[in-house]
Amino acid sequence: xxxxxFIRENRDTVITGMKDKGEKETEVVDKVLEADQxxxxxxxxxxxxxxxxxxxxxxxxxLMSQGKKEEARKLINETTGYKADIKxxxxxxxxxxxxxxxxxxxxxxxxxxxxxxxxxxxxxxxxGSWGEPNQKxxxxxxxxxxxxxxWIDFERGAKVTGAGFPFYIGPLARxxxxxxxxxxxxxxxxxxxxxxxxxxxxxxxxxxxxxxxxKEDMMYVIPRDGFFTxxxxxxxxxxxxxxxxxxMDQLPVKYVAYTPCWRREAGSYGKDVRGLNRLHQFDxxxxxxxxxxxxxxxxxxxxxxxxxxxxxxxxLPYRTLLMCTGDMGFTQxxxxxxxxxxxxxxxxxxxxxxxxxxxxxxxxxxxRFKNDQKKIEILHTLNGSGLALPRVVAxxxxxxxxxxxxxxxxxxxxxxxxxxxx
RNA sequence: GGAGAGAUGGCUGAGUGGUCGAAAGCGCUCCCCUGCUAAGGGAGUAUACCCUUAACAGGGUAUCGAGGGUUCGAAUCCCUCUCUCUCCGCCA
Length: 422
Known about the structure:
By secondary structure, the chain is α+β, with helices and mostly antiparallel strands. It has helices at about 5-10, 10-20, 25-65, 70-105, 140-150, 155-160, 170-190, 205-210, 235-240, 295-315, 360-365, 390-400, 415; strands at about 125-130, 150-155, 165-170, 195, 200, 220, 225-230, 245, 255-260, 280-290, 320, 335-340, 345-355, 370, 375-380, 380-390.
């Protein structure tokens, strides 16, 4: 959610930002401003009425305590009319506020000036790359390797739950556990605090990080209890500090959290969803930062390069994309995607997405801090995957497959696996 | 799942219809005093929003778990919900 005062003062910037993100209905900006103006006028009116009414009530109180019943009664009769007036004005105010807030939720975060303008994948810029993508023919895709060795069971997963809910068996189950531990240990060495979160969240939390109303359909719902299964640890972990005010010495806050993630992925199909490329349940180690506004873009670069370092340590070639305005999310101001090379499929697979949300999430969550002048300010939030497991596993299997049919274990993972081949 | 108790400011804790955004204590900040330390004295110390102001600041409204109701007036009375604690049951 953007600051209404920011919109008032930067109407054109907001509209340009919306257009750059591919949002057509930019007239909401003026509608918001209109509703806000109406609300302000009404608030002033309500406050005025309440003030008068309070004044009279206070007088009545004084008269009563002095035993002047008759005068008090007279005043009570005069005051009765306020009730209806206030109620009426409150109703209008509430309506205007709701209208304003609903419209406000439809306005996306403004892209940072360093973000390239573009409206599709083509607009993304290759920010950097590492390693040499293996273009050799004849390398097997991970699903073949997994199938030949009975490492992943998609069919039984489909029987037990549904498509996109695979079982991992034997060495592959262990490989996932090794990756989780490896990722968490690396983050701890970088000063992140490990945190374990609930896997279900309530509606307020989903709203806080912006899954509602923008991306409601991505989440599984548990209607009886009003819960959503988390699509990413970002949701519970960022909401952890909802409604809190930090002091300067508590910042920045850095968390690393491993959780499963559930995504409905409605509308996905084709070769994109083959094997481990796209699942309804997957494991991810997530990094969340809560930082001072002045530091957030620098922190984004740190986050990006940290995520990159993980792929380097696993010796998996990758490239980093700076996402263009149109391919970034509703809530982000700047975003990098890390894509690992999949030699068996000869394509890039997204394994991490590092984003700066500036104050967009924090405002809705009332996530604030007291600055040097003891003034309250909204914080900035960031997050990034460090990393998402399935595609790392896919790239790893395909990259480390050997002529003899075995799959080697990357050196850094060997202590976690206790062996050199899977 | 059954029975009971409770929810007040950073913390502890008073307050059962009127000048209560809320006593007191603790903590914290600033000042004074004291050659260090300890003790003492004074002032201050929630959040959101609206209005006025270039700004400093000032005025107003709301908030005592949440929402609704009664009343001229609610922390205080009524209803609903949530959460916490104790006991019983069940259980990884």
